[in-house]
Amino acid sequence: MNRNIIKRNELLAQKVIKGLESRNMTGYYAASREEAKELALSLIPEGSTVSMGGAMSAHEIGLVQALKEGNYSFIDRDEYEDKRKAMLLAYDADVFLSSTNAMTEDGVLVNIDGNSNRVSAIAQGPRKVLFIVGMNKVCSDVDGAMKRARNVAAPTNAQRFGISTPCAKTGSCMNCKSPETICCQFLITRYSRHKDRIHVILVNDMLGF
Question: What is the C-alpha separation between 192 and 26, in angstroms, rounded?
Fold first, then answer.
């Protein structure tokens, strides 16, 4: 990666971390995927029950594989015939892994969900929520973050899941009411009432969608 981009990411990450702190959330900066994985593992005590939404970023840094191979009780919903049961178990997990569709430079997290299991677990339930966030997801403000979530993350995920929505065909949000829309619930996390619940690892890389 270009040294100027690395320096820019380091400086921007410190601004985001200060914003998170002002919102009763904790931020960290990892210079690489490996560093992000090790940092995440240091925040997850062995023996913890861990669940997750569909966080590609956690897969990309090798965290999911490490949890499956380590001394953790990992709830893998792909191994459950009853997906609803796996989703409900997530609400009582010690740690919930997620990424974010977008976030602002001053620490606001923006997420859109179809089934809504992910945004509901972010909002309430699991004792700790750990976000893995590539620096590509940081936007200047809430308006920019919302545009990114709707016009980058949502169409890409719709295409990934093979869902027949207008955005999957056009590549941008059409503000649809399609039966298959994945933009059912919008969650803006601007503050955490519970200290030490929300942790955000900013990674010096392009992760997720």
Answer: 10
| DSSP secondary structure code for residue 55 in this structure | -
d(CA 133, CA 202): 5
Measured in whole angstroms, the distance separating CA 161 from the mean position of its chain's CA atoms is 17
What is the per-residue pLDDT across 83-129, written as a single tens digit (0 to 9) for each?
899 899 999 999 999 999 999 999 999 999 999 999 999 999 999 99
How confident is the model at residue 22, as a pLDDT?
98
3-state secondary structure of 205: coil
CA distance 30 to 35: 6
Supply the DSSP symbol for 130.
E
Vertex 194 angle, CA 28 and 200, to 5°: 20
Q: Which two tokens stand for residue 122?
A: 């972010």
Instruction: Please give the single-letter amino acid code of residue 202.
Output: L
CA distance 22 to 20: 5
Query: All domains of the chain, ordered by start, with CATH?
Result: 3-203 (3.40.50.10420)
Residue 49's identity, in one-letter code, is: T
10 Å Cβ neighbour count for 189? 21
The alpha-carbon radius of gyration of the chain (Å, integer) is 16
Chain segment 25-75, per-residue pLDDT in tens? 999 999 999 999 999 999 999 999 999 988 899 999 999 999 999 999 999
For residues 208 and 100, give the distance between their C-alpha atoms in angstroms, rounded to a whole number. Answer: 9
| Rounded-to-integer distance, Cα 25 and Cα 190, Å | 9
